[in-house]
Write a structure and sequence with these properties.
Elements (H helix, E strand, L loop, with lengths): L2 E9 L11 H18 L5 E7 L5 E9 H22 L12 H9 L15 E6 L11 H19 L8 H16 L6 H18 L6 H11 L1 H9 L2 H5 L4 H17 L14 H17 L4 H20 L5 H6 L3
Antiparallel strand pairs: 1-3, 1-4, 2-3
Helix pairs in contact: 1-2, 4-10, 4-11, 5-10, 6-12, 7-12, 8-12
Protein name: Thiopeptide-type bacteriocin biosynthesis domain-containing protein
InterPro entries: Thiopep_bacteriocin_synth_dom
Pfam families: Lant_dehydr_C (PF14028)
Length: 332
């Protein structure tokens, strides 16, 4: 067996480039990609996806399986499905749209031409099979890759179920806030590691996307204004927090958390001093980011959620340890 990855770029013409939420992209995901994802899973071991703008707005997919399965099953199926979908939805295949400010920064840092004339034609599909699995770079071994993409596949599929049930970013941000807080506190990380992860991720986006120098201070100040209310909210049982979401999303959160409990353990690695491995920080950061990306939540909003969860984590660290006697008294 020759294990390989199929990398795909499905270009489309967004309805809005100046706002994170794009209903046209959501249609592509809900009507074309979700059923195709499920059919591919019949023979494909691992699948992941994200929204991207390298060389033009696109659905970026990656499928990991035996090379022959990718070549004989996945490639023709993907081409057939998207060709048919684009033929029925010509608005997705219009002229290439100008890059947003952040998309332009991304393309510039990738060394690409940001002029609209240089962007890929919406409606085009690029597929490439590769044996470069980033072993030795992103993953220590093939086994580590399998563990990571088993987790990614579970979360990527759960996130797809959010899209048909939410047509506003407010609900999606509540979902991501609840789900990611549960992810961070699923028992795999120490409190100081959660803080470190959130700080690193926030600073990464501030630096990469050239946010104003005062962004973090302004974000922290905004969080401080409602910290007490948010603290009370996050102390409530999960079932109560889920009441803020449409009922259809309650099962989505539970399915995502089940995937987390099932697959996250082997992804969390520690050295001999029990320090969390850099690869584990990277994997968890990717899960955090891709949850926002897949739901069209902006980088700025993601960085702000880092500020909120970081403040809550510092609040937890300041809470005195309860004695056994206090715990018993609190039961009555």
């Amino acid at each position: 067996m020759s294990f390989a990855v199929l990398n795909g770029k499905i270009y489309y013409s967004p309805e809005r480039v100046d706002e994170p939420y794009d209903p046209r992209a959501d249609r592509l995901l809900a009507e074309a990609w979700t059923p195709l994802f499920d059919q591919l899973r019949e023979q494909i071991e691992f699948i992941t996806w994200l929204r991207f703008s390298e060389g033009g707005y696109q659905l970026r997919i990656a499928c990991f399986a035996d090379e022959q399965v990718l070549r004989d099953f996945a490639v023709p199926l993907i081409r057939e499905r998207f060709a048919a979908y684009f033929a029925q939805n010509p608005d997705l295949c219009g002229a290439a749209q100008p890059l947003s400010a952040q998309a332009a920064i991304l393309n510039r840092k990738l060394g690409l031409d940001t002029d609209v004339s240089a962007l890929a034609q919406p409606g085009s599909v690029e597929l490439e099979i590769s044996h470069d699995l980033a072993i030795g770079r992103d993953h220590d071994s093939l086994e580590d890759l399998r563990h990571y993409y088993a987790l990614q596949t579970a979360i990527a599929r759960s996130t797809l179920d959010v899209i048909p049930h939410t047509t506003d970013l407010v609900t999606r941000k509540i979902f991501s806030r609840i789900f990611l807080d549960e992810l961070l506190h699923a028992g795999f990380l120490q409190s100081i590691e959660i803080s470190r992860l959130l700080e690193r991720l926030r600073q990464t986006w501030v630096d990469y996307f050239e946010f104003p120098g005062e962004f973090i201070q302004q974000s922290d100040a905004l969080v401080a204004q409602s910290l007490e209310r948010n603290w009370r909210f996050h102390q409530r049982p999960l079932a109560e927090r889920l009441s803020l979401l449409p009922e259809a999303l309650h099962g989505v959160v539970q399915a995502g958390l089940e995937g987390l409990r099932r697959y996250a353990g082997p992804v969390i690695k520690r050295d001999q001093q029990q320090e969390l491995a850099f690869s584990s920080y990277a994997a968890l950061s990717a899960l955090f980011h891709l949850t926002h990306n897949r739901l069209s939540i902006s980088i700025a909003e993601e960085a702000h959620l880092c500020s909120l969860l970081l403040s809550l984590e510092r609040q937890r660290q300041q809470q005195p340890e309860q004695t056994l006697q206090q715990l018993l008294v609190n039961q009555y």
